Every structure is written in structure tokens, then in C-alpha cells.
Amino acid sequence: MNYQSIILPHIWNLKPYSSARDEFKGKEGVFLDANENPLGSPLPENWNRYPDPMQWEIKEELSAIKQIPVNQIFIGNGSDEAIDLIIRMTCAGPANSIILCPPTYGMYEVSASINHVSIIAVPLTQEYQLNVDQILSSVKEETRIIFICSPNNPTGNKINRNDIYQIIENFQQGFVIIDEAYIDFSDEPSFITELNNFHNVIVMQTLSKAYGLASLRLGMAYAHPQIIQILNKIKPPYNIGGATQALVLEALKNRDFLFNSIQQINHAKNTLISELEAMPQVIRIFPSQANFILVKMEKAQELFDYLISQQVITRNRSNVALCENSIRITVGLPEENQVLVQKIQEFYS
Ligand SMILES: Cc1ncc(COP(=O)(O)O)c(C=O)c1O
């Protein structure tokens, strides 16, 4: 694949900033190169030294977990950083466009707008699947990215795999980003295994959901080594803090927490769905492959307000096209879900 025709020329030719920790990689020595404070930190642990700019230890751990070489892993300050960088390396302004399929994760649009890039919205079908023909016929000469979120936020469903293949196979002038933020809860295999077959695909995942590390801010983009090289070139030099790197490394070794979380959350989700389904005011619960459910219900707006007044916070999606009268509910602990169900019953009684 000819990446030079996709990557903006000034990015392709960019000579990246070379940080002190890029130039000297050893761990021992007298460090007088990065203008740090040699006395340490006003904390029990010392954080006075800059962290590894390339996060190699985390990448090695992820490489073993995901069965992918380290040079196909980019680590961002949340996947939100990866979304922004991918837009910035391919789109220069309103002449360039991205395609997104609403209702979907809001940051694709926000990031594109911040970068003054045109947005082509091709809504999902009534069943929240891709409108493949319309997506492909909406592609303009300067379109550089198609965003696909699967399982999709806020609808929770997975996108038909064959539709994704059709998009990938028929869009060669840019990247297809497959956002798998919720893949750990799903029975669908990741597209990571397809990266060697499709060089226009970038898969995004995050530690913010099933891994339980949202506050540490760490997201991954997996792609062809050449794409990863460019993302590394344009990221801020020390985009992942040292404390995050240390904690994530420790967390990645605890696989049991992840597997237990997935099992418990999926179990709690099924219980919650059964309880909600028993209510006549619930119109439809969309099939969910994520850790949340989108529920279409009577008087959704009033219910949402009532729940807030009772300090039960959900996400009202009623104003989003195709999500009329719908509330997105994150699956909580069983006792939290019980409070929710009880408050909904109270509201309708
Ligand atoms: C689909 C999707 N992608 C990405 C993100 C952002 O993830 P991160 O916390 O890694 O920035 C979210 C967060 O809600 C999401 O729903």
C-alpha cells in the first residue's frame, strides 16, 4: 500500500523532536541531560525522571497478550489521543473528510471538527448496522478515514463482520479505523488478526473499559509498522506518564481481574436485561455486546430526570437521531443495578 499518498506531505517529511530519553536509553548513569530535578519528588516515590517515551515494557506485555509484534502497537493517552493523531496525519483541513456512522462515539466528530476537517455522516440503519452502499458512494476523492465502532457506542451491538470487510476491501485511499473499545465484552474476535491482510486498517482498543483503568488514560492503536512509526513521530514525546506506565505494567500481569470482570459484568447485564424486559413501559432493549445497554422506553426524558433526582446517573440519548426515547445504562454492580430497577419501577408506578 502506498502510504505516502494518504499521509499529509508535511507529516511524511517531518523530522520529529528528539527527546533526551530518545538519545540516551540506558538506565544507569549521571543524568544531566533532561533538566530534571536531581533531588527527587515531594512524594513517597520518585517521579522526577522523564518516562520512557516509547513505553517499551508495556508494548512487550501487550505484544504477548495480543499476539502482535511491538512495532505494530501505538500507545496513546487514551484512544482519544489516537483518534486525534490519525486525523491529524491524514487530514489538512475542510478539503479532507472523514466518514462516520451515527449514532456512534462522539469524539470522532469532535476531533474532526477541532482539526477543521469535513464530516460525512452516513447514519446506521434502523437495526444499527452499516449502510454499506451509502458509505461507499459517499466517499469523496479527499476522504481519508472511515470510522467503524464495533461494538458500537451508544447502541451496544456489534457491526456485521461481512459489512466491515466490504468497507475495508473497497476503501483504499485512506484508513478504516475499527474502534474496539468494548471488544472484551463481546463474543466477536478482534480485527487485530486481520492487520496483515489489510494494510488500510487501524484497530483501536482501550484499557478504560474491561481492564478497569480509565483514570490512567491508556489506549492502543494497532496497525502496519509504517503507520505506527508515523504516529510515534507526531505524538507528544512523553505522552504516557511514568506513574501510568508503572501501574499499567502491573495491571496487565493480573489477567484474572480482567476475566472475572468480563464474566461478572456480562452476567449482571443479563440479569438487568431480564428485569427491564419484564416492565411494560420498556419498548425495546437493543442486543448488547458491551458493558452497557441502550433501552427504548416510555417517557425516557422524564425518567432520566427522575433518576438524576434520585442520584442514579444514566445517559439520556433521546436527542440523538435513531435513539429517540432511549437511555444508555452502564452495567453497574448487582446492587447498583437493583437500585436502578427499583427507581424505574417507582417512576412508572
Ligand atoms: C467507542 C469508544 N472509543 C473510545 C473511547 C475512549 O476511550 P479512552 O478512554 O481510551 O480515551 C470511548 C469512551 O467512552 C468509547 O466509547
Indicate the topology.
Blueprint: H1 9-12, H2 20-23, H3 56-66, E1 73-76, H4 79-90, E2 97-100, H5 107-114, E3 118-121, H6 132-138, E4 143-149, H7 161-170, E5 175-179, E6 201-206, E7 219-222, H8 225-234, H9 242-252, H10 255-277, E8 282-285, E9 292-297, H11 300-309, E10 315-316, E11 326-330, H12 334-348
Helix pairs in contact: 3-9, 4-5, 10-12
This protein binds pyridoxal-5'-phosphate (PLP).
What does this molecule look like?
Residues 46-344 form the Aminotransferase class I/classII large domain. Pathway: Amino-acid biosynthesis; L-histidine biosynthesis; L-histidine from 5-phospho-alpha-D-ribose 1-diphosphate: step 7/9; Lipid metabolism. Keywords: Amino-acid biosynthesis, Aminotransferase, Histidine biosynthesis, Pyridoxal phosphate, Transferase. Homodimer. Pfam families: Aminotran_1_2 (PF00155). The protein contains 12 helices and 11 strands. It has 349 residues and is α/β, with parallel strands linked by helices. A 7-stranded mixed sheet has the order 1-7-6-5-4-2-3, with helices on both faces. A hairpin with a 6-residue loop joins strand 8 and strand 9. It starts with 8 loop residues before the first helix and ends with a helix. Bound molecules: pyridoxal-5'-phosphate.
